[in-house]
Specification:
Structural class: mainly alpha
Low-confidence stretches: none
Largest sheet: none
Radius of gyration: 18 Å
Distance between the termini: 39 Å
Number of strands: 0
Number of domains: 1
Strand content: under 5%
Order of helices and strands: HHH
Mean pLDDT: 91
Length: 78
């Protein structure tokens, strides 16, 4: 295997790793959004601040990773 082949293999693996990281971020954002909404609605006032923080972090993850990226990557609902 020549140097270009090794580089191409490395870049393909790197690309797959980045794609997996983005998909996992999307799934974690969706789950955090669901849990944050449930917690913000049904928890007491002491814990609502923590659930609001979870909601903010989830919105950031969804903004960066995309809403349906993880669903398409892992073929959920197909």
């Amino acid at each position: 295997m020549d140097l270009i082949g090794i580089f191409n293999t490395y870049m393909e693996s790197f690309h797959r790793g980045i794609e997996l990281s983005i998909a996992l971020g999307s799934i974690l954002g969706i789950l955090g959004l669901i849990l944050g909404l449930i917690g913000a609605i049904f928890s007491n006032s002491m814990r609502k601040e923590k659930f609001h923080l979870i909601l903010i972090i989830s919105f950031i993850l969804i903004a960066i990773c995309g809403l349906f990226t993880g669903i398409k990557y892992f073929r959920i609902f197909r």
